[in-house]
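Researcher: Please translate sequence to structure tokens.
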Amino acid sequence: MNRFLSPNQNKQLWLSLLLFSLCYGVFGWLFAEGIPHLTSWLLEQSIIVNLPLSTTSISGGIKFLSILFIVIITIALIAPFQLISICFGDSLKSEKKAFFSLLIGTSIVILLVCWFELFVRLSVLFSAGILVRLDLQYLGYNKSQSFLILLLVALTSLWVGLFAFYWFNLR
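Model: Translation complete:
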């Protein structure tokens, strides 16, 4: 880590961390807004397939998946090329694998077009994360330090957004 930082570099890091935190806080707020709708839909689906699920277990599962989602985004921000090589490493060497990669890729593009609002929200999260990652890399932080900083700030901001939604809606 570069110990001789100019005040501008330090301000730039704090500004990008603030922007990153605000993006994840707003995402937490919007996520909390959608939890009741998703919970009721999953509860209806579980009744149809005769699974004994409760509202609290579904809500807890959704929150666990949000944590998993943030960990995956953070890993994608820290090591994007390694993640791509793991997912598609040898997939283009045979015709079948190339066909399935193309099929999956076009399916993802179709989903992005159909759910454009979600795509824009995720793009904002990735953009804010890339900004912080570049600032941390410029300041000399290694990958594990950057991963921990990004993960802790993202999780804290998401949970602050969730808490703020519930706090202001109960009053």
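Researcher: Any highlights?
Model: The mean pLDDT is 82.
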